[in-house]
Amino acid sequence: MLRFEVSVDDLLRSRFALSPALDLCLLLRSLAGLDRPLPGAWAGRLAPVFERLRRETELDAFLALQTPAGGPDFVAPPPRGLAQTWADDLAAIRATPPETARPACAAASGPAARDPGVRAVLDSPDAVSRIAGAMDRAWHELLAADWPQLRAVCERDVVHRVGVIGEHGWAAAVEGLHPGIAWRAGGIEIGFFRGGTVRLSGDGLLLIPSVVVGHVAAHLEDPWPRTLVYRARGTAALWGEQETAPRPDALAALVGRARARLLLALDAPASTSQLARSLAMAPGAVGDHLAVLRGAGLLVRARSGRSVLYRRTPLGEALVAGTG
Fold first, then answer.
1. Other Cβ atoms within 10 Å of 204 Cβ, number
2. How many CB atoms lie within 10 A of CB 219?
3. Other CB atoms closer than 10 Å to residue 316's CB: what's the count?
4. Residue 151 to residues 9, 83, 195, 273: CA-CA distances in angstroms?
5. How far apart are CA 204 and CA 296, in angstroms?
6. Alpha-carbon span 142 to 300, nearest angstrom
7. Tell me: the pLDDT tens digits for 221-244?
8. Residue 31 and residue 38 in contact, taking contact as beta carbons nearer than 8 Å
9. CB 229 within 8 A of CB 210
10. Is 146 strand, coil or helix?
C-alpha cells in the first residue's frame, strides 16, 4: 500500500496541473505495448503514424529509455500549472543538461537499446536534442490535432474537483479520483500501489488529470513534486467506452441529438468553449443549444472567474437519470 501523510499545510499547497508531455509519453508507451492499450478506434488511427515515425525519426531512442515502471524525468518535466503547453514542455526537455540525461541513456537496456543506431543516439553528446526532436514530431503528428478536445476534458475535470472541494472538502475530492483511493486518518491511501508511507512535508500534492493514463499513476521522487496522475472524468465517454449509460435515443428524440449530447456531457459544470472543444462542435451552435436547454429549465449558468459555467438543474438531472 502507498500512503501519503497529509498535513493542513499540505492541503493549502496542493494544486492541479496539466502535463502535455506526460500524456505524450503515456500515449507513446501505449502504442509501443508498454502500457494499457488505447481505445480501439484511436489506436487504429494512430498506429500507422506511430510506426512511420519510428522509421523516419529517432523515436526508438525515446522508447529505449522506457521501462515497465516508467521513463526518465527529463522527457516529462514537472508541469507548472493548468496553463502548461507542449511548447513549455519541449523547451524544458531541450534545456536538460547532458549530464542529467546521461545516466538514463547509459542504463537503457531493452530490445530497442540493443539496436546499433539507437545506441548511437543514446551515446551521442546531443542525445537530448535528438530525442526532443523525435518527441516534437510525435506530438505534432499523433496528439496535437486532438489536444484541444482532450485538454477541454481535463479542464472540465478540474472544475468539477474544485467544486467538490468547495462543497464537501478534500477527503471527498481525493476519494473521487478512483475507487481504490481512500482518505483515512489524515492521509491518502492507495491500496493497489506499493511504496510505504510518503510524507508531503508541507509541500502539498500535485494532481494531474489525464485522458491517457489507465487509472492512476504516481510520482514519488525529485525533481517532481509528490504527484498523483488520474483518469479525467469524461474520458470513457470521449472514446465511446461504456463507463456511463450510453446516449439514449429517447432523450435525443425529446430534445434533439445535439442537445442530448450537451445535456449528457454536463455531468460536471462547463463553459461554452469547453463543451465545444470536448464535443468537437461549433461554439455558436453550442451556445444556441445551451440557450434552449436553459430556457426549458434543464440548465442554469453561473459566473466563475472570467468564465460562465453551465450545469444541469434538478430537472435536467432527473431527465438524464431517467434515460439510463
1. 18
2. 19
3. 21
4. 29, 10, 30, 12
5. 43
6. 37
7. 888 999 999 999 877 666 655 444
8. yes
9. yes
10. coil
Return the closest-CA partner of residue 150 out of 239, 43, 258: 239
Question: Which residues in 147-186 are b (16+ Cβ under 10 Å) and which e?
Answer: bebbbbbbbbbbbbbebbbeeeebbebbbbbeeebebeee
Place of cell 464537501: 168
Q: Is 249 left (phi over 0), alpha (psi -120 to 50) or beta?
A: alpha
CA angle 270, 276, 281 (to 5 degrees): 145
Decide: 191 and 8 in contact? Cβ < 8 Å. no
The secondary element (H helix, E strand) that includes residue 64 is: helix 59-64
How many Cβ atoms from other residues are within 10 Å of residue 318's Cβ?
A: 12
For the segment 100-156, what is each residue's pLDDT rounded down to a tens digit?
999 999 999 878 889 999 999 999 999 999 999 999 999 999 999 999 889 988 988
- Evaluate whether 30 touches 44 at the Cβ level (below 8 Å): no
